Amino acid sequence: MAHETTRGWVGRRALRIEDDKLLKGRGIFADDLHLAGLLHLTFVRSPHAHARIRAIRTERAAAVRGVVAVFTGHDLAARCKPIYVDVIFPSYKAPSRPVVAVDVVKFVGEAVAVVVAESRYVGEDAADLVEVDYEPLRAVVDVEAALDPAAGVVHPDLGDNVLFKGKFATDKFDAAFASGDLVLRERFRSTRVAGVPLEPRGCVAAVEPGRGTLTFWSSTQIPHMLRTAIADLVNVPGLSEAKIRVITPEVGGGFGTKAHVYPEELVTAALALELGRPVKYTQDRREELLTDIHARDHIYDVDVAVGRDGVLKAVRTRILTNAGAFPSLPFGCTLEPTGGARMLPGPYRLRNYAYETYAIATNTGPSGAYRGVAQPTCFMAIEGMMDRIGRALGIDPAEVRLRNLVQPEEMPYVNVVGVRYDTGSYVAALRRALELVDYEGFRTQQASGQPRDGKYRGIGIACFTEVSGTGAPGFRARGLKRIPGFDSALLKVEPTGAVTCVLSTAGAGQGHETTFAQLIADELGVPMDVVTILEGDTTGGPYGSGTFASRSVVTGGGAIVRAGAKLKAKMARIAGHLLEASAPDIVFENGLAFVRGMPGAKVTLREIAENAYSMSSKGLPPDEDYGLEATDYYDPPLVTMANATHIAAVAVDPRKGGIEIERYVVVHDCGRVINPMIVEGQIHGGCAQGIGQAVLEAMVYDADGQCRTASFMDYLLPTIKDVPAMIVDHIESPSIDAAGGFKGVGEGGVIGAVPALTNAVADALAALGANVNSTPLTPDRVLAFIESAAQSRSAGR
Amino acid sequence: MADEIAIRITVNGTVHERKVEPRLLLADFLRHELGLTGTHLGCEHGVCGACTVLVDGASARSCLLFAAQVDGARITTVEGLARGGAPQPIHDAFHEHHALQCGYCTPGFLVAVHELLADNPEPTEAEVRDALSGNLCRCTGYVNILAAVLDAASRLRASGQRPALR
Description:
By secondary structure, chain A is α+β, with helices and mostly antiparallel strands. Chain A is built from 20 helices and 31 strands.
């Protein structure tokens, strides 16, 4: 990076500091770590969704040359406490999860034993020799069927499968609902999907002989919470957080998948401590698909009451979310049901709202926090209703939205569930997106008849709010007590004038090293290239939440702004002392301190630092402490609300069911943008995941609970042929509530793409009378929508 | 192991003579025997393309090959594409277009792009999409990868270069 004036690094398309090593193949990911004497773990996994383990015989496996030991669930129960996720809602109940199944397995892929071997090849050989005698039990799979305990109960000690039920209604809701001129009802369903980072999970544990300290490298997004979990759950006398250091090496994508503490991490730590040798666990893709958190197996029943003008009078919804077999640490199983219910009002002026929302246990993979959490589906529901209102009343769907959006003069706005929207651009984003996609032109062409290629064209709008930067109050409001909410920054000027910042966040490819360096350069008035960002290491910096839920620029950025102000004040006091000026008159630019109005009087950051570290004769001002560093924390408000509009135009082939995306426009507002290039990258990638959920991806369980999609041959990720060119535009409505004015951006792409595409396909097929209300819109499902419309037409004839 | 096979493989210009188990995957040989951990494993069943290397100049999935199968071959990995000091139009274009985020899929993409542009110096957008349809990326949404490849092609043409495939 060339030395340039430091004024205004924020807002620039600075190229990434991270890229060089990654382009040369020199990034070190978890599986790239090689330690002398390394042992490898291979887990034996259940082929049954629900079965009693009658017996496990490990002798043949243990006899394989190169096998060090084999442990069953009973063996490990003495070494690791079961995982239990506290959620502070009265209606919440949850099972404890043994790190390896004890006596009963509850989903396909659950571990029943683990082999410790000198190599992964030997471990896999031996794992095949572990003999497990299963007695298959009835599995309950479908979320709606599981509501009835007669269908089977996943955790008999809990009585039924309802792990959580939430309920809310505004005052006099029924009367408000009855005041509508028109009532519309729809059921929306999204199929289970998963985050599927390209790097499967991995971890390495090493114990320092004698001291008993554990260094734990993991591809995690939550190093501090993982360290606490290891300290809490691994049963080794004397083990505490003080003896555990968690480090994240390069992490190959996370998307929320890696923002959970997994049983394999606890087993890896426990066995390294027990065996006194370094231990590695690297997943294969099958394990990744079977055991990493899943999401979005949801049903939304939505009733809306509207006036003749299309304005919402009241909305009621009942949400069922499939929790899978176990809640995941730290998000439990309440994140999806509470998220969907609380976010569904979105950017709309809705004052009468009622919901019931459920998390239901089934014999399927555990659910958790995947990028966007409930928002892609809850916006598919409310945005789907906006289009249905338009169709029912003969009002253009864009106009329906304009009549219902919170208007600029109403900001700040507190929504119906008490979430404050401090700033935003709901109307402006929609108007800009309509213009960029040439909405009027599309509608004119659409009205003139379908083109001769036999394909149906449709356009779909998604206006949405994006919950980002959730603070402690936001997590408590969703019952979660294991997540701190805040993040931290330790910002220091080293004796040579280099600037180091240790953050509690932990990136997985988002470009934090670059983004945060830009911000610090501006906050301190130093060149960007003197700044080094260190994150993902629990030693050397204070506690914090980590990176997930579109939070890092809000919480980490806020912590930098606060710590930066403290540090800069000390820099100014020392510079004032050296220049015989008063601290308030000192300005920093490009690593130099000047006296305002006296361009000749200046000192370098290094001179200031040398005095702070007592390496210079001039010394410090009276009563000033040595050192040049500051630590601060930032806990944002309830949430920090970003917003966007996505519009997709599609062509649907009614013979083959294929969908082509012909135009795609995003107008996004994440407040103050630090690096537009990186923000656009987040949006592109998010949109691709949304396209995946909308048209390709489905984690499929059959009626017996067998997972049918445990490979990339069956679980289809979008390729370069599936993602279209897109127009991305920014509006900046800086937050007035959050420090620095930043809002998050990580999840917006996936949140908007699912409703925009679903609505576009629905619009295209509306001419045929098809009612498109679920994802993924794979060719067979598109043809089924068309067929079912044809059947109801002929039945009505 | 009793049944080890002696192999001689040239990787990034260096000759390696080793004895390997017949079932040792080329990817594991490169990563764990030679320490060339730039070649990544994303699926181990030949779909994601992260482990793509050049075998005698042609791209191949190192998770679907045994090391013993490529006895005598010349292999180029991502480490071999990054030659010290020389201009790297493909790498530069990836950097300048923000065509990578986590970097896990990037080695496979770089190898595939080197092959594409060696074979076809002026690919159309559709040809780039075809050539890279066997490489999965979960971060970038491919938008910037496409832009980077088209730009790299034009830079290479402007400088009269072709990617070397060794």
